[in-house]
């Protein structure tokens, strides 16, 4: 069968934290739950004019004729899984979460499979997503109708293999509570005290606030706060301000160590945690190793 190139929305969705799921539920139950999850995602896909291309392990790949179809399907995929709460082997309750990435662009259809640039970018978006998120590209957001477009927020810049420049990535907010907060955010009291986080490395000080809501730290000189640590990744970790709360998000190979005074040390690898009060951050090295390249942070309100 001859190949043809068409513009499509490509969507990848996979089960987040599947290793923990198997530990909590046991192998037999977890395999059944993952299979049921993929079947639910397939049904949602078909209900939104989509086509399931394939499932691999705990991941599903689909195509949709429009960016709107893909975005609406992605939102419904999360919603249907909210109702699926499972009792674990240790008495824990478990909600299955997925991470979703989507992108609209040119794709090659051949032999029942899909290839090309849009597929690569969509896969990259899924890799950027965390459990419970839908991540997409700026160009895809531009194709959404106004109501859906209003429920998106800029997240970060991300490198894409084969492209010279990083692209802007966005999150599609699917939870009604979060959408409401976004829509009403401009109506909040202008005189409300604003949260600020002062981040310092050596003699460099950067403040995270409502005007600068994301701070990137890492070995690259292009970071907001370049850190001279050999174990640090180029863009190792970021601090985000979300609704007056600060979060640290590790995106590195060697992980990030966080010490919130006077508490215990926390270790993050491809995870996030809230930041409050004062503390220290070490990229790649634990505090027991007496790291020299330490970042300090101070939480202020006013």
Explain the overall architecture.
With 302 residues, the protein is an alpha+beta fold. It folds into two domains: 4-183, 2-Layer Sandwich (Alpha-Beta Plaits); 195-301, Sandwich (Tumour Suppressor Smad4), CATH 2.60.200.20. Helices cover 25% and strands 40% of the residues. The protein has helices spanning 18-25, 27-47, 67-82, 117-128, 138-141, 146-149, 176-184, and strands at residues 4-15, 51-56, 59-64, 85-87, 93-95, 98-110, 113-115, 134-137, 152-158, 167-172, 195-201, 204-208, 214-218, 225-226, 237-242, 245-250, 256-260, 265-268, 272-275, 278-283, 294-301. The strands form four sheets. Strands 1, 2, 3, 6, 7, 8, 9 and 10 form an eight-stranded mixed β-sheet that branches. A six-stranded antiparallel β-sheet has the order 12-11-21-20-17-18, with no helix packed on it. Strands 14-13-15-16-19 form a five-stranded mixed β-sheet, with no helix packed on it. The longest helix is centred in the first third of the chain and has 21 residues, at 27-47. Mean pLDDT is 86; it is low at 183-191.
Q: Write the CATH fold name of the largest domain.
A: Alpha-Beta Plaits
Q: How would you state the average pLDDT, rounded?
A: 86
Q: Describe the oligomeric state of these chains in a short phrase.
A: single chain
Order of helices and strands: EHHEEHEEEEHEHHEEHEEEEEEEEEEE
Summarize the structure.
By secondary structure, this protein is an alpha+beta fold. It is built from seven helices and 21 strands.
Keywords:
globular; 21 strands; 8-stranded mixed sheet; single chain; Tumour Suppressor Smad4; 2 domains; 6-stranded antiparallel sheet; alpha+beta; 302 residues; Alpha-Beta Plaits
